[in-house]
């Protein structure tokens, strides 16, 4: 729970959603048409949960990104020129935090770090909605 007098800024996250049949439609019987567990596990963005920290609530998203080949791999190819490149694609998982709710000072502080944390829509969402819960002078005082 947030302290009394807290502002809440709700920002929708763009995550892949499961396709559900609407009224009158049936689920496909073809197993290739439905998403398998492996396909769900391989989606590039997965909602992981929430965490609270210092008067703010963050939504945690795990992002799967292609890993860059290691520099040591290049030297092993020189040692064994007949060996072809690795046929496997390696991925790494990055944790991204998006601000879900916070006090006004935390909302303004997040303006400075949102892009670095991967919360790319925050700045435009904040600027479009801050007047509903704060004045321009309050925001400017917190920024300076």
Automatic annotation (TrEMBL):
User: Per its UniProt record, what Pfam families does this chain match?
Assistant: RasGEF_N
A GO molecular function annotation here is: guanyl-nucleotide exchange factor activity
Q: Where is the N-terminal Ras-GEF domain?
A: 95-144
Keywords of the record, alphabetical order, are: Guanine-nucleotide releasing factor
**Where are the annotated segments for Disordered?**
1-34
UniProt superkingdom: Eukaryota
InterPro entries per record: Ras-like_Gua-exchang_fac_N (IPR000651), Ras_GEF_dom_sf (IPR023578)
Protein name according to UniProt = N-terminal Ras-GEF domain-containing protein
